[in-house]
Design a protein that fits this description.
Structural class: alpha+beta
Protein name: Oxidoreductase
Number of domains: 3
Radius of gyration: 23 Å
GO molecular function: FAD binding; oxidoreductase activity, acting on paired donors, with incorporation or reduction of molecular oxygen, NAD(P)H as one donor, and incorporation of one atom of oxygen
CATH class of the largest domain: Alpha Beta
Helix content: 25-40%
Cofactor: FAD
Distance between the termini: 35 Å
Pfam family, one: FAD_binding_3
CATH superfamily of the largest domain: FAD/NAD(P)-binding domain
Keywords: FAD, Flavoprotein
Length: about 500
């Protein structure tokens, strides 16, 4: 096979990237070693920024209305995640459903997904890559690609074959978990008992997910899932309850390892999701971080392939997302201490509860809520002093969202002062980029509070939803259009 991009890994991140690449006009082949999509639903939480992205691509309709809770947590301490967004809080969607949705979308856009194909060898040159996989019949399958993206999880084969530097620390503590049918125990939300941490949640289908950590118990070297007997023993020591009569449907262990690949882009090889960063999956942040990696990368890599990327655009994937990942991993390490630390962290947890209590200060709570939800991400996009520069565009404040442009992952130049002399000039300037940027006229919704768009009459938004120019002190629109979308059509 020959393709523009070979994506290794057909989990949520690889499928999201495949769809984004197709929207940008790049050919993509996705290989996955599993013969069929996994039935394990490891991550079930989608945060506000990810929900905004799915809405922009027109994917939320298929999900219906998932269960929502504005209350999340920071290291097990309850935290109100309410912020200005149409999708505040946590949205519960089984990972199996997320993968099903993203695969159908990617396939509908023309992506090729090959399952039961395990990557065995990878040769990378300055001009492309040659990959060899074992197909479902055991025979070798060769793929030639201009770029390879590893989306193949924390034990990434792409990372191993390329020898990518992956600094960080291994797990010292772990949670073991199981989905168990046929048990009747109380629900527990991060309950800290004398001997450990216990979590239990009964699903609508009657299956209970249990997670447990025994204080002082070190992470064990594992080559597979823990035995159910181990979960039963640890659960009983921590809670006093016997769940041994239940039927285990899925078993898993995860630790507090924290590693990040040194370069998200190394020539023709790139990494996204858990292949780029390994962290304890606290509050669903790992899945959301990976999906947002894919959306940041997709349009840039597609522009590079189609010859429309300005110099250095693809390298901004590393500079932007490595910094975001580093910050999230640092936060997760702090949460791991709160979660798995023994009685010695109780005093610190109590002080923290006071700090995030809205009765004392709303700023700390909002800061942490923005960090967990992904709504506070701001990239360095160049000069200018408008507070929206580099931040995600709050489309919910407009009376008309640019749905067509968003669904096609195109740039958007928003005209917020229609009929003005400057608006006519704006439309004329943008004509040179009409093949990749849409000009959309919009007004403001009636709102009680101040708008994040105050003072702006025009705004340029990238395909990933981040603002890269406003008419307020950020120079000429032509400069921003060239920087992010390449040269105009003559």
């Amino acid at each position: 096979m020959r393709t523009d991009v070979l994506v290794v890994g057909a989990g949520p991140v690889g499928l999201m990237l495949a769809g984004e690449l197709r929207l940008g006009g790049a050919e993509v082949v996705v290989l996955d070693r599993l013969p069929r999509p996994t039935t394990e639903s490891r991550a079930t939480t989608l945060h506000a920024r990810t929900m905004e992205i799915l809405a922009a691509r027109g994917l939320l309709e298929a999900l219906g209305t998932p269960p929502n809770d504005v209350m999340g947590h920071f290291g097990g301490v309850p935290l109100d995640l309410t912020l200005p967004t149409p999708y505040p809080g946590q949205w519960k969607v089984p990972q199996t459903r997320t993968e099903e949705l993203l695969q159908a979308w990617a396939l509908s856009l023309g992506a090729t997904v090959r399952r039961a194909h395990e990557l065995r060898a990878l040769t990378v040159t300055d001009t492309g890559a040659e990959a060899e996989a074992t197909g479902p019949d055991g025979r070798p399958v060769r793929v030639s690609a201009r770029y390879v993206v590893g989306c193949d999880g924390e034990r990434s084969t792409v990372r191993e074959l390329t020898g990518a530097d992956f600094p960080g620390q291994d797990a010292t503590r772990e949670l073991i978990r199981a989905d168990v049918a046929g048990i009747d125990i109380p629900d527990r939300r991060f309950q800290r008992l004398q001997r450990g941490l216990a979590i239990a949640a009964r699903r609508p289908d009657g299956v209970t997910r249990v997670m447990v950590h025994e204080f002082g118990r070190a992470a064990r070297p594992r080559t597979g899932a823990p035995a159910f007997a181990e979960v039963v023993d640890v659960w009983k020591r921590v809670t006093g309850e016997d769940i041994g009569g239940g039927t285990p449907l899925w078993l898993n262990a995860f630790g507090d390892a924290s590693r990040q690949v040194a370069r998200y882009r190394d020539g023709r090889v790139l990494f996204a999701g858990d292949a780029a960063h390994v962290q304890m999956p606290v509050g669903g942040q790992a899945l959301n971080l990976g999906l947002q990696d894919a959306v940041n990368l997709g349009w840039k890599l597609a522009a590079e392939i189609r010859g429309r990327a300005p110099d250095g655009l693809l390298d901004t994937y590393h500079s932007e997302r490595h910094a975001v990942g580093e910050r999230v991993l640092s936060t997760i390490r702090a949460q791991s201490t709160f979660l798995l630390g023994g009685p010695d962290v109780e005093a610190l947890r109590e002080v923290f509860r006071e700090l995030i209590d809205p009765a004392h200060t709303r700023h700390t709570r909002a800061h942490l809520a923005g960090l967990i939800s992904g709504l506070d991400i701001r990239y360095d996009v160049g000069p200018g002093d408008h507070p929206l520069l580099g931040a995600r565009m709050p489309y919910g404040e407009l009376d008309q969202a640019p749905d067509a442009a968003c669904r096609k992952a195109r740039g958007v130049l928003l005209d917020l002062a229609p009929g003005s002399p400057s608006a006519a000039e704006l439309h004329a300037v943008a004509a040179g980029w009409a093949d990749r940027v849409d000009v959309v006229t919009a007004g403001f919704r009636t709102a009680d509070g101040p708008s994040a768009l105050s003072g702006a009459r025009a705004v340029l938004v990238r395909p990933d939803g981040h603002v890269v120019w406003t008419d307020s002190g950020a120079g000429r629109p032509e400069t921003a259009l060239r920087r992010w979308f390449g040269a105009p059509v003559s």
